[in-house]
Amino acid sequence: MPSTDVIAAIATAPGRGGIGVVRISGEDLRDFSQNLLGKISAPRVATLSYFLAADGEVIDQGIALYFPVPYSYTGQDVLELQGHGGDAVLRRLLGRCLELGARPAEPGEFTRLAFLNDKMDLAQAESVADLIDAATSEAAKTAMRSLRGEFSHAIHQLVDALINLRMLVEATLDFPEEEIDFLEESNALNQLAVINAQLDKVFRQAKQGNLLREGLHIVLIGQPNVGKSSLLNQLAGEEVAIVTPVAGTTRDAIRQHIEIEGVVLHFIDTAGLRDTDDEVEKIGIAHTWSAIHQANVAVLLIDAAKGIAPADLEIIAKLPPDLPLLRIFNKVDLLGQEPRMVAADGIADIYLSAKTGAGIDLLHEHLLRVAGWQTGGEGVFMARARHLSALREAGERLNLAAACEGRVEFFAEELRLAQNALSSITGEFTSDDLLGEIFSRFCIGK
Amino acid sequence: MLYPSQFDVIVIGGGHAGTEAALVGARMGLKTLLLTHNIETLGQMSCNPSIGGIGKGHLVKEVDALGGAMAAATDEAGIQFRILNSSKGPAVRATRAQADRVLYRQAIRRRLENQPNLWLFQQAVDDLILEQDRVVGVVTQLGLRFRARSVVLTAGTFLAGLVHVGQSNYPAGRAGDPPSITLAQRLRELQLPVKRFKTGTPPRIDGRSLDYSVMVEQPGDDPAPAFSFLGSSAQHPRQLPCWITQTNLRTHDIIRGGLDRSPLYTGVIEGVGPRYCPSIEDKIMRFSGKDSHQIFVEPEGLSTHEIYPNGISTSLPFDVQVELVRSIRGFENAHITRPGYAIEYDFFDPLGLKNSLETKAIQGLFFAGQINGTTGYEEAAAQGILAGINAGLSVQGKEAWHPSRDQAYLGVMVDDLVTRGVVEPYRMFTSRAEYRLMLREDNADLRLTEAGRRLGVVDDVRWQSFEEKSEAIAREQERLKSVWVNPKLLPQEDAERVLGKGIEREYSLLDLLRRPDVSYRDLMTLPSAGVGVGDSKVAEQVEIQAKYQGYIARQQEEVARHQHYEAMVLPLGLDYCEVHGLSIEAQQKLNQHKPETLGQAGRISGVTPATISLLLVYLKRSQNMSDHKKIA
């Protein structure tokens, strides 16, 4: 294995569970440990540690276990971080590992390393092969699942644009005796700007980067008697525990945090929004409004029997105009109605009963869809993490390319690396494929 | 009869691949025989009269760095030299020369005749002598039997060659030469995977019948660059310009009118031609929106009036050729001296070759040049020298050698051929090289000459000159690292003139040279810079290496990431159906390609990282098993 290669993955099953483990393996993890934990833990000793974000903020507090080479599962340096179970925290922690240069582990890769570094005996060889085989087909399925819809469409547009630009650049370098200067004719920098914009769009549509770190922010509007608490309890259900803030962050009294399918939902309660002369309260209200302006969706909870309250309408009028609104008509059981969802003009109406739980699944699904999240197996996250790290790498290369103006061979090199990064999403694109594009577009050759 | 003396290496074919193979075998001190059907055409340039170009010039310099003949012969025969892409970076700059065919042939022939250990013999080869799966000699047309320990076959387009002009066709090796029918049949019987390609040439024209006054002159560079690392422009004969003209709508109408008699468009030609060097009828059909195509009017030499109109390769009937040629500006009264033609020929699927260019099926038998599905003199020469070296190493009982993809275009080409195979005649382009920034013309010697010396193919003269140059580069780099420029002692006007602006802290000369707009020559004019090197080749190398350093370092990291797998050897006899967990598709691909290393397996299209993981596990497992056996 190349010495720079570090792999990381969440090692515990998703969902429930009080403890979650992130495992990291690499030839030398001392720098990595220094950056993530602020120290290098003593070998093979459970050490209470803070897991730190880039800005020094604490992601979680937990146990770090450092197994220096060669006495470890994989035979490399291994770092095991045991944190507080919740999927969101674990993902943030894994995200941080990727930021520090690790790449998401391939299916079965820890076990493969273990085998290759003589940490397993011969009898286990076949099972390793089976594991890789099974994990790979599962990963392929989840990668396909996670690549549907807008996200996939935008990525393909991006790759097509990149291929087009590379075609012009390579034709310019390889065929200088042709009559036209391919690059001059095509305004390469402008094309690059378009590709960069496309890349931004992919990020936006995926919403993933944001979701992984921050979750979905929801403005909750509704009078005290409409059943907010029972709604939140139903939503949280048995899925996972309520996320508690960790040391170093300030508890925000007017928010509630719920996690479904690994996505954190932050509910911003608007109940406190009223006219007041209390200075402290005024500051709190200003905070709430600024949170509302960062929100992804507004949820209006209505007693189906009573209809919308005037106080709610006042708040709705002050919401940002492009904030999607979801209306929930609660207590349908009392009216003898069936739960249902009706969507029109950017407003979705869901009829449900928070008390009986009827219709909660509709809400569940709808909120995740708003978040840009397609539900699926655990692998979806890993597949998407791979996509994101590929996109990030490609983005960096494109920025470097933009700085190469006038030096075409460097420009070409950065574009090549950008495409290499994307090949983990789109499949391999060889130089032969590229030449094929050139020859089908231009009449080349004497 | 059995020829009385035995040879180490027999090379069949005297084109660009065969001559390099024969010369290098003899340079290795091995008793080498070059068999050709005609000694007069040794070193013949059968297509366009030029050597080099983008990607191709790189190959020529690599052959030169290994002591080969092509660059040096071009220096003696070149009648126009240019550096293409001179306005772009050094990695994509390439030398191209127009060569006088007669002078080139003479330059090659002189080298062959004066090469110790090399014997020439004129006879067509009809058969190979095999003992089990090993080649031990060849049989010629007269039934002469020559024995040798390895054989390099460079048959070019001669294997079952079929020339087309309009609807008539006839068997030929190239226009004017007989084909090798018997040998082609014998090779087909050996079950080597044979396929068919097509290539073509334009009609040749008497230059006296052309009106150059309406064409655009294209002069060579002044001063003219030398091709060989040991060459100089003083060796060049008299220089000539080329000319450029175009086809027009009338030309295109004439061509369309003749398509019903075109062997290409009536389905007579079945072989696949190259997409980048299409016939004029192909250009017009595939790009019907284009009103005109460029034609480069290239002189064939100093002692002939013939010219080569590069860009109108065609197999249309002769009467259409005359009409289309005469529709071109400046060609109104053109007299065609030789008709253009297309030729179909046998080649062998290069997937059947090892990296050494030895066939997997027959030990000691090496293939080089067009027989492997490539096109171009330069590609042929580069394969020739590699096949010759490995034929020699095999005689010496040594391990085969080939440069890696990050070491040479030759390495890229061989890996592409034996790993991916070919779907059209393979030509080199710089975009094929992922490590393009490292594989430059200017450092071909630094990349290969040391390896060549170890292999015994680089003579003392070249080695001494190489050592002097590389030492001078290292010395100057050390000096630039240790000389510091102090901002306080740097006059403002000097700073602005050389660096564009003043500096805010102390920098070494090497740091300053890394800046994109600072040239070595200017830098040496700073008061504190000391005395730079006089040798412009050394100065150039120091400057390029400084400017490319960041990118090279990154590419080297990329190389290092892949190196691990390159060293892991896969047994050639491995049946991939036996490898646990592989998909049927992967099994089939791997059984078809039989890669030599895990790295090569990874470059086969459709082979996934998971497949590589499974192969890793398999290799490890077999290794453990054999370890166990040893202990037991």
What does this structure look like?
- The complex is a heterodimer of chains A (446) and B (632).
- Chain A is an alpha/beta fold and 446 residues long.
- Helices cover 47% and strands 18% of the residues of chain A.
- Chain A is built from 16 helices and 13 strands.
- Chain A has a seven-stranded mixed β-sheet, with helices on both faces.
- In chain A, strand 10, helix 11 and strand 11 form a beta-alpha-beta unit.
- In chain A, helix 5 packs antiparallel against helix 7 and helix 14 packs antiparallel against helix 15.
- The longest helix of chain A has 26 residues.
- The radius of gyration of chain A is 26 Å and the shape is globular.
- The two termini of chain A are 46 Å apart.
- About 6% of the residues of chain A have low confidence.
- Chain B is of the alpha+beta class and 632 residues long.
- Helix content of chain B is 37%, strand content 18%.
- Chain B contains 19 helices and 22 strands.
- In chain B, strands 1, 2, 6, 7, 8, 9 and 20 form a seven-stranded mixed β-sheet that branches. A six-stranded antiparallel β-sheet of chain B has the order 14-15-16-17-13-18, with no helix packed on it. Chain B has a four-stranded antiparallel β-sheet with strand order 11-10-19-12, with no helix packed on it.
- In chain B, helix 2 packs parallel to helix 9.
- The radius of gyration of chain B is 26 Å and the shape is globular.
- The relative contact order of chain B is 0.12.
- The interface between A and B is large, with 48 and 55 residues.
